[in-house]
Amino acid sequence: MSTKKNVNIGIIGGGLMGRELASALARWFVFVDPPVEARLVAVADLSEQAREWFRRVPTVTQITASAGELIANPEVDVVYAAVPHQLHQQIYLQVIEAGKDLLAEKPFGIDLSAAEQINAAISHTKRFVRCSSEFPFMPGAQKVIQFIQEKRYGKPLEIRVGFHHSSDLDPTKPINWKPRRRSWSWSTPTTPMAATGRRPH
User: With bands split at pLDDT 50, 70 and 90, how would you rate the model's confidence at 201?
Assistant: First the structure.
């Protein structure tokens, strides 16, 4: 029986990125002697269809349409927020002020003012917050960085890296929430703008 500390994770936003994190946590067992045991225990999303997907995850004990309910859950230690950009400030501040650690998506704030307010809240509460979509802090990437620093591979002459997001490779995919002009709140979902055939660059 494991004596390691359980770190319970909640996801706000059960779309593509939320499902990706759930998938990553399901593979946690492949790590050799990780310092903690990470478990997905809660999910919040406005969409009933999105929420339904997470019912297959046996460790999830809370599925809700309310981000506030998830944030208030005392069993949740860390919150991963994958919500529309204009909601980042609202959700990030709620998570930090509730005393939870935060895994955030970019952009850190929709503008400089929002980012400064989020950063000020972090400085006040001293919570752990990481905002990254390039995975430099995942174990695999950290190992590569370590090997390069230790010069295990000699002198690198060239390094090419990239992350191809499958949905961004399809120019005919309908546009989604990112370019919406209307305001969007967690409690008031809106309908995506009509497809135009090509998304704006």
Answer: very low
